[in-house]
TrEMBL record:
The active site is at residues 188, 293. Residues 1-25, 50-70 are annotated as: Disordered. This is Glycosyl hydrolase family 26. Pfam families: Glyco_hydro_26. It comes from the Bacteria. GO terms for molecular function: hydrolase activity, hydrolyzing O-glycosyl compounds. It comes from Streptomyces carminius. Residues 40-347 form the GH26 domain.
Length: 390
């Protein structure tokens, strides 16, 4: 999640914290010693080689209920943390991996393979997982670009000037084996902060969205679903004014935090452009809903909000939902919210008759630098597992 203004003017949200720098040399040395030791000692070692030119994942198989996940960090740390959150929840299986492409420069919006690869590996490990990717529609997306320049950029986008960037992204996702990625394109477009906002020229914005979707769908092998996800409430413009058309939207999402507009959860449901408006708008078009971002905020540790939001999700049965799990919004990674964390944990723990389903390890360790030559230069990773009981 990024800094922006939701609800009344000046109600700014916090910038998502940057991931800590990775100490690649130390990690490589330590893992090298561990792998070598396991091989020399004759210990139990199971390996899976994942190749990007191998079979693609089957389409997500039907699963009962809503797919659950959390935003836990943008890069590979976000992938690694999934196992920790599952353990904290008592074994609940998280089916959604969610991250954001950086919106600073086009080269990053195109999706660097090194950034996307850990998420693609995670997605491919289980057929019914969802990879949800927020994709900015403009570079310099958080640099307070003025409205007159936004209008100019929207006109350029509507004219096709940026199509090639999105074709590049689509091609990379397909080549990485995640052609069924859920694309949260130009999220919170009804707000005031992002350069990809809609209010300066809704007509051009809608035309630009259509160009992006057309460009990405033109790539052979793609199976993308596009999620139109405004922020709850009117904000700078009613989000229905930005809706680009049923033929280029697959999911109607909404980002909704515990903050104004609305003093109570019922207000959040019933306000203009609120939660009820979202589900009714989607139902009229035969589309599923989603909640790519939600969580605590202005009212701090609010277990009543947490309970009501989880009840709303259970009632509406969205395709997926992902809480923003960092302060000031989250529960697992934010010690400031113990009461809300207890509600979240209780609601999502496996219930009687719903034991956690075992699955493959959550993360493959990339060992291309050492072993790539032995496998013809292909991408690969190794999964360590203990065989037998102790």
């Amino acid at each position: 999640m990024r800094q922006r203004h939701g609800g009344p003017r000046g109600a700014g949200r916090h910038r998502r914290p940057a991931a800590p720098a990775r100490r690649r040399r130390l990690t490589t040395a330590c893992v090298g010693a561990a792998v070598a030791g396991a091989l020399v000692a004759g210990g139990a070692l199971a390996t899976d080689v994942l190749r990007e030119d191998g079979p693609r994942p089957r389409p997500p198989r039907a699963s009962s209920g809503t797919a659950v996940g959390a935003f836990l960090g943008s890069d590979s740390e976000g992938v690694r943390r999934i196992a920790g959150l599952q353990k904290w929840l008592g074994g609940t299986r998280l089916r959604v991996g969610h991250t954001y492409l950086p919106g600073d420069r086009w080269v990053n919006i195109e999706g660097r393979p090194g950034f996307l690869r850990p998420w693609a590996q995670w997605r491919r490990a289980e057929d019914d997982r969802l990879f949800v990717l927020n994709v900015p529609m403009q570079e310099r997306n958080e640099e307070n670009v003025p409205d007159h320049e936004v209008r100019r950029l929207l006109a350029r986008g509507a004219g096709g000037d940026f199509d090639h960037h999105f074709r590049t992204l689509a091609g990379r996702l397909v080549s990485l084996g995640v052609p069924d990625t859920v694309i949260v394109l130009g999220w919170e477009m009804n707000g005031t902060t992002y350069t990809h906002r809609c209010a300066p020229d809704p007509k051009a914005w809608k035309a630009y969205w259509r160009r992006v979707v057309t460009a990405m769908r033109s790539v052979p092998g793609q199976e993308f679903r596009f999620d139109f996800a405004p922020s709850r409430g009117r904000d700078a413009v009613g989000w229905t004014e930005c809706y680009p058309g049923d033929d280029v939207v697959d999911i109607v999402g909404m980002d909704s935090y515990d903050q104004p507009p609305g003093e109570t959860f019922d207000d959040q449901v019933n306000q203009p452009y609120g939660l009820r408006h979202q589900v009714e708008f989607a139902a009229a078009r035969g589309k599923p809903v989603s909640y790519p971002e939600w969580g605590l905020f202005r009212r701090g540790d609010n277990p009543e909000y947490m309970r009501r939001m989880l009840e709303w999700i259970e009632e509406q049965k969205p395709l997926y939902h992902t809480i923003s799990d960092y302060c000031p919004h989250g529960v697992w990674r934010c010690a400031e919210h113990p009461r809300s964390a207890a509600v979240f944990r209780s609601a999502l723990r496996p219930g009687p008759g719903r034991p956690p389903r075992p699955g493959r390890p959550e993360y493959c360790l990339d060992l291309e630098d050492w072993l790539g030559a032995w496998f013809g230069g292909r991408r690969l990773c190794v999964i360590l597992s203990r065989e037998g009981g102790r």
